[in-house]
Task: structure prediction
Amino acid sequence: MTGGRVDAIAIDGPASSGKSTLAQEVARRLGYVFLDTGALYRAVALALLSSGVTRFSEEDPAVVRILSALDISVTPGASGARISLGGLDVTHHLRGEEVGALASRISAWPSVRKALFDLQRRLALAGRIVMDGRDIGTVILPEARLKIFLVADPEVRARRRLKDLESKGDRRPLETVLADILDRDRRDRERPLSPLVQAPDALLLDTTRLSIDEAVTWIIDHYR
Result:
């Protein structure tokens, strides 16, 4: 940390705006650690799903017990972090649709955001890291040397998401995916704790018509 700034890049933005893809490639080119903070929320969702709980309410006593006993650890790496629950590596179990859907819901819970704050903050302050999420530049690492806020046309984001789903054998109408994208945007913007918002000193980057290489080069040029 120099001059109150942490040698890091914070990338925020709505779903399917390209955060993880760009953050991972930026980290690779700089030789920095990459952390997709969404994976941490997916780990919490996996913990809930694995527990047998059927009523996913923040006030449910069983859910409260699980959240209070969370044991999540992160092993950072240039190609992405390894996430463990109770000492067991669960990284490859975090990308399922059921896990993702629940993670989207519980990410608005204040108890979950508070439970993950210290872990994210500790990793961020180590520096030489590229982090992406919804509140990295505003809450987790406001001292980041560079903050980027990504945007893209909702239909373009929906097509990107649909392509990702189809690569996994999951076919659904574009209209359904777009509706889900818009619903997630609304939840992210309207949640009372750490809503999705551009930090005052974050640079706006619209990826609608940019290639991955163009966007990555833009970010690294501004970082340097």
